[in-house]
């Protein structure tokens, strides 16, 4: 595992893209084929099943080190990563076990066949025979998740530059379902398995936030303008009578949306479509909080199906009759899409309407009223644009409505994880509710490193608790919280839920007496 | 009568009528070591180990009233027998032993058990009451051996050289910097920032041999340091100053670097968990070796460490002090103000 460990170490100890790329190239040069496959699998989120529970791991490490549970918790809170905490707590190794990454993965895979005492024997032996860095990696491998120091996109760029391939081709090749057992690394990244897989999606084309509207929208006729819908971006594939729905997170979500599958199944022909999955009742798009009730459920009850019906607003077409049309112009693809839908009954599925305006001024007012129909702004697509892989500046822009904001006070703080584990970075904010404070939102981002340090110092000095991960702090620091939307919620104490809350800025000029109250926050819901 | 009290000005010896490492101006201050959070400005008289005298003069001012004392040498102040014993933290660092009417209290300041080759090694002192720091009072902090640390640093320098890079080490200018200099002695030409040089002079005035080095003047062109080793204080990390060094990789040397998140937060190229404080096991070893009936836990993981001591049968109490601005508050604390 030394080769892999030094790759992880190299990725970990630099934030420069070039150096990360160099480290991956070096790994591709020296590593075994199966190790490369595992590397790709782990770093693109294909996690093997967990063979041993974290509860057991915790029990065993406490047993070996004879530290009490509360002290383990304190250590964990301070490190922010379970695998790393365990590795740091363990005594120095007494020997060395030398296996390749693939061999380790086999061993980890075999764990599921062991009983608990066999598992324990194996894990304890490994812990006693790996130095800290490798022990940490081993613990991460046990957990299955492995996202260290490089994004999937960075990984794809590194692979494509090393093998002299198109990044889009590589990202297409490694999407979808493949297993380490049945693949060869070179064949996989060269796209040898692509055709055999009916569900294979295309990478999504994404938009940048617009900068300088006047300079961009010179001639409105060059732009296809649509609403930006606030749902789940989805790619709907129908090939050989089978329907698949992929989310933007590269997850197959087909089973979650039976309404769409049923409707698409009845359509003639094969195609790949891009659209937005939304909660729609009586032709009206519902708030995102409604859609959330439908997400990530194993079983969808009949009641829920009636309460939160799902619909799909189609944006684009990427493939028709097995022909990739992504290089056609937006205008041509729109015509293809309209043609495809022309003779369909369209029950829950609709084409996302175009916005026709004759001036920038009227477009601006359309945008300002977007929230009234639960849209989060506008999408501007150049009529000549191809369907790009990922984000590319110039062809597609998103022009979101300005976020809503409130002033709230910090009441709880928690240390972050990973890079953020040494500071209090995760905050809970409250607004006034009569004479009390009521929790309104949690936010994890928006402050600079310097501000985080300053808040951390405040937390250290003003915390009520001394133990455990969460600190209650004196309600004193006021922040302006921005969010994309707001809806009623029975799960939150305040009775409302904010969508995408984040810290806009630290209002050092305001005191806790000046924060918003819950009644005025509720008025933001329309 | 209690031998010591924790007062707003600092730790007070009641019968002796003096303070130990006070943070507010007082008449008489006994100083455990020369770090800024323990040796502060404004005391009428200072008493410290001989080796700490030039450090105090260099840091606080040449005109202060300061008296030096050797390790193990006993003097009596208002009937209290006072002696200084090695704490192993930095050069001249001492645990201060107070004996009065058969009762012994030891104030240990900052300490470590690992031998760094520069400070006089820590010496356990039997006592009834022990005042201990707890900077790294969590079991996740376990230092590598000094040999292993030195080997890792040397490997890193060689790795950098193979990529034609200059190795920059960031470490506190009193103690850590000299330790790093010693660890990488002879591998490559060594350059240090002026603030470190100033303290090196204090070391050399005491007859301590440091590796050969050159003072780096960042106002001039510094391209000649290429592929060498540069040691700078923490205040320089985010400044434009170190960016003048061509093709550099920089490493932070601090106990906090044990944790991956802390290394990544600082976005350094490398982090070496090297500390002048005791790690978890050494804190416990030190405390047990004193045989103390009562332990006062000062700066660091006070609540956690005191709770653990009580659980293993050692009567411990946490005490609020103003120590620990040096290394323990947060991995990012900037201390030394002057950059050039």
UniProtKB/TrEMBL annotation, chain A:
EC category: ligase
Species in which this protein is naturally found: Sphingobacterium alimentarium
Reactions mediated catalytically: ATP + (deoxyribonucleotide)n-3'-hydroxyl + 5'-phospho-(deoxyribonucleotide)m = (deoxyribonucleotide)n+m + AMP + diphosphate
Keyword Cell cycle annotated: yes
Residue ranges occupied by any ATP-dependent DNA ligase family profile domain in the UniProt entry: 303-433
SUPFAM superfamilies linked to this entry: ATP-dependent DNA ligase DNA-binding domain (SSF117018), DNA ligase/mRNA capping enzyme, catalytic domain (SSF56091), Nucleic acid-binding proteins (SSF50249)
Keyword annotations of the record: ATP-binding, Cell cycle, Cell division, DNA damage, DNA recombination, DNA repair, DNA replication, Ligase, Magnesium, Metal-binding, Nucleotide-binding
EC assignment: 6.5.1.1
Name of this chain's protein: DNA ligase (ATP)
Gene Ontology MF term list: ATP binding; DNA binding; DNA ligase (ATP) activity; metal ion binding
One GO BP: DNA replication
TrEMBL record, chain B:
Chain spans, region Disordered: 321-340
Classification via SUPFAM superfamilies: Metallo-hydrolase/oxidoreductase
GO molecular function: RNA endonuclease activity
Gene3D superfamilies noted in UniProt: Ribonuclease Z/Hydroxyacylglutathione hydrolase-like
Lineage: superkingdom: Bacteria
Protein name (Swiss-Prot/TrEMBL): Putative mRNA 3-end processing factor
